[in-house]
Recover the amino acids of this structure.
């Protein structure tokens, strides 16, 4: 079960909402977010938080 959990967290990729391309390290991208309430403020690695929270992600060619 721990392995499943690990894979779950490892598999997070940010992909463009328009073309579906994965956003790579070092790439510039645009994101639409809603600022959460303070008690729901996400903590963690940025890519994981964004993958979970982002409403829209646009890669460098789509923005
Ligand atoms: Zn794109």
């Amino acid at each position: 079960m721990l392995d499943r959990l690990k894979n779950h967290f490892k598999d997070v990729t940010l992909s463009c909402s328009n073309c579906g391309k994965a956003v790579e390290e070092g790439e510039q991208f645009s994101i639409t977010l809603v600022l959460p309430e303070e008690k729901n403020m996400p903590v963690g690695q940025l890519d994981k938080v964004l993958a979970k929270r982002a409403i829209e992600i646009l890669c460098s060619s789509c923005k």
